[in-house]
Design a protein that fits this description.
Order of helices and strands: EEEHEEHHEEEEHEEEEEH
Number of strands: 14
Mean pLDDT: 83
Strand content: 25-35%
Number of helices: 5
Strand order of the largest sheet: 1-11-12-13-2
Length: about 200
């Protein structure tokens, strides 16, 4: 069956033949922390990936994230934790809870957890994103393409096999993979295309 092009909601279908193509086993749409993390997790398994991110630069988000003890063990295994520390993460050893009416409610400490890390780490979200990006860049099995606003899915026999996006309305780029995964939660065109309600977080394709 010939490959079909299906534009995303509100997007115009991409016309013309691609001027450049990339092959990988997995195509990941969304190159922030979730997409980068997916690529890093697949890397030790020998699974190659193409990560597509619509922003050309890491976006400034006025938000701090607390990385929990169990997550720190995963980040250490991925080789991301050292970079997070280098970028200025600080340790959080306990939470103290207050209520505007009742006052002090109590303190919860990480010290009693049965984890290698007895604390969380806090760092601004853009720097966490930067840490993931810095770890991914040297890995040859992971390709990152920024400025990639996906507008069209490629389908063959009811299976998504790749995506298309135009660059400056001139060139068309096409990454292909056995699996296409969506990690762009703030722009759920992928989910809408598959007809999934908002409560669903993932789908096999």
């Amino acid at each position: 069956m010939p490959e079909q092009r299906h534009p995303l909601t509100g997007q115009k279908p991409v016309q013309g033949d691609p001027t450049e193509e990339w092959e990988a086993e997995v195509v990941i749409i969304g190159g922030a922390v979730g997409g980068m993390g997916m690529a890093i997790a697949l890397s030790p398994l020998g699974v190659s990936s193409v990560v597509l991110e619509r922003h050309r630069q890491i976006q400034e988000i006025n938000r701090g994230d607390a990385l929990q003890p169990m997550g720190l063990s995963i980040l250490e295994r991925w080789g991301v934790l050292d970079r997070i520390v280098e970028l200025g993460a600080y340790n959080l050893k306990e939470w103290t809870f207050w209520n505007p009416r009742l006052g002090y409610l109590g303190t919860w400490s990480f010290e009693n957890l049965d984890f290698p890390f007895k604390y969380a780490k806090v760092l601004r979200h853009p720097k966490i994103h930067q840490a993931f990006s810095d770890v991914v860049v040297p890995r040859t099995e992971i390709q990152i393409h920024r400025g990639a606003t996906v507008t069209t899915f490629l389908m063959n026999d009811d299976r998504i096999t790749g995506v298309l996006w135009p660059l400056d309305h001139r060139a068309v780029f096409r990454p292909r993979g056995r699996v296409v995964a969506g990690a762009a939660c703030h722009h759920p065109h992928f989910r809408d295309f598959l007809g999934l309600p908002a409560a669903h977080r993932s789908v096999r394709v």
